Amino acid sequence: MEYNVKDLSLAEQGRKQIEWAEMHMPALMSIRKEFAESKPLKGIRIAAVLHVTKETAALMRTLKEAGAEIWLAGSNPLSTQDDVAASLVKHDGIHVFAWKGENEKEYYDNIEAIIKPEPNVVMDDGADLHAVIHEKHRDLKILGGTEETTTGVVRLKAMEEQGVLLYPVIAVNNAFTKYLFDNRFGTGQSAIDGLLRATNVLIAGKVAVVAGYGWVGRGIASRLRGMGARVIVVEVSSLRALEALMDGFDVMPMKEAAKVGDIFITATGNINVISREHFPLMKNGAILANAGHFNVEIDVKGLKEMAVSYRTIRPYTEEYTLSNGNKLYLLAEGRLVNLAAAEGHPSEVMDLSFSNQALSVKYIVENRSKLERKVYNVPSEIDERVAYLKLKGMGIEIDSMTEEQKEYAKQWKYGT
Description:
By secondary structure, the protein is α/β, with parallel strands linked by helices. The chain folds into two domains: 8-178 and 345-393, 3-Layer(aba) Sandwich (Rossmann fold); 185-340, NAD(P)-binding Rossmann-like Domain (Rossmann fold, 3-Layer(aba) Sandwich), CATH 3.40.50. It is 45% helix and 15% strand. Helix 2 (26-38) runs parallel beside helix 14 (347-366) and helix 3 (54-65) runs parallel beside helix 4. It is globular.
């Protein structure tokens, strides 16, 4: 049994956490029951780079029930829940290489460790695993992979467009039952959870600046407004800026927002959204957090170089003093605040995302001979099935069309 985790003695607490998550993931548990009987992944070796949380554990345990051998590493140096990692090793026989607080070398060493057994299927969150395989292990015979998040899908689409993608990948992030719920409701709640755990500040009455108005930004902006903040949206897309304005938010450039914001949360997937030029403009006491996948959205290096001093003032909260005397507070080192300073998305919303993951892996294995070296969206039948299973698990029933309605939907001759 190969693994590298912080402390196996944490396994019992981790098991309780996993049980708690699975209690709130009825769709995935329904899929697990089916997988346990049919074993659709028997003989398949999976390498996964995902946030090692209790929800991810529920997914890994489901794939193992399907017959797969699992090798798991973390997709962020600060997001691993060490008790969960220990439980997966001790109780489930899953090869885990992850702990909270990895440095950059350890992070990539762990990715190499799960590539070494030569996986058949790869699962990723951010595309670091995909990138390492394409850069250093191009000889591997991989049937296909999945990608969990927007940032990773962007990287994979770039690979496809450049003609270097080695195997088919299903963009789980693009499923309706993923981004409409995980990105919006999941990050909307969990980013604020991380902000509050790190600072315990009152949100009501403050000016909150949200950079990016994609589904993640929309979720964060709406939740901040719901807690009493006055919200400003910063965007580079005219369409999204107009939408934010029509949704009732103020819209302005970051240079202007920097002067008035109390709380800043980035959610763009791009680099230096808050940069050196913005820090001197900010109020004394401004709080900076990132909800994008990589720690590049806030120019942390620039902030450190500009600061005359800095110190850790609370767990996950660093105080930077600028030459003008103003103090800025950076949360979770600029990494994903919802996973570094909190527990990530609630289990109920990850039930949707990880049901898509499980069914997408099964789809890849069953359709391996038909798939090309492309980035595919989740098949619509999987998307619909996940929504159905979720509603069923919540005890919700919906109508179905009558035969008359089905026929009417097919015709074109009837008018007014």
